[in-house]
């Protein structure tokens, strides 16, 4: 069913849960897996931290075909938002499923901060699996 699965990670516990789901689905369907992490600028500290997050995520996988991508929302895609960069990566890589964790923000915090996962729902045509914290 799914052949190209992308999962977005940020080092959080919910992202680890999303990664575990993506790995399970990739193994079930013998699908390729692409793990992405998005930064907002060319800051070396952010790039190093992003690469550490990706390497940790990759080391947790047991999928046959796995790659990682460090996305830079501003430099690579000319965009300002993390969701825009991930949506562009989904399109570029031709993912047929995107897996993302979603927090349980409520009320004013959700209104003001929003959610990358929520924004992705509006931006991509691929199927999306939202993983909530346990």
From TrEMBL:
It comes from the Bacteria. Gene3D superfamilies: HUPs. Pfam families: Usp (PF00582). InterPro entries: Rossmann-like_a/b/a_fold (IPR014729), Universal_stress_UspA (IPR006015), UspA (IPR006016). Residues 1-132 form the UspA domain. Belongs to the universal stress protein A family. This is Nucleotide-binding universal stress UspA family protein.
């Amino acid at each position: 069913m799914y052949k190209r699965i992308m999962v977005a990670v940020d080092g959080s516990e919910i992202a680890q849960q999303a990664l575990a789901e993506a790995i399970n689905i990739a193994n079930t369907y013998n699908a390729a897996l692409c793990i992405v992490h998005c930064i907002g600028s060319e800051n070396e500290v952010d790039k190093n931290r992003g690469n550490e997050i990706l390497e940790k995520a990759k080391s947790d996988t047991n999928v046959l075909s796995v790659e990682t991508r460090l996305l830079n929302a501003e430099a690579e895609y000319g965009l300002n938002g993390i969701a825009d960069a991930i949506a562009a990566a989904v399109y570029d890589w031709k993912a047929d499923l995107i897996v993302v964790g979603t927090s349980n923000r409520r009320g004013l915090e959700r209104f003001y901060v929003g959610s990358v996962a929520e924004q992705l729902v509006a931006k991509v045509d691929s199927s999306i699996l939202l993983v909530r914290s346990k």
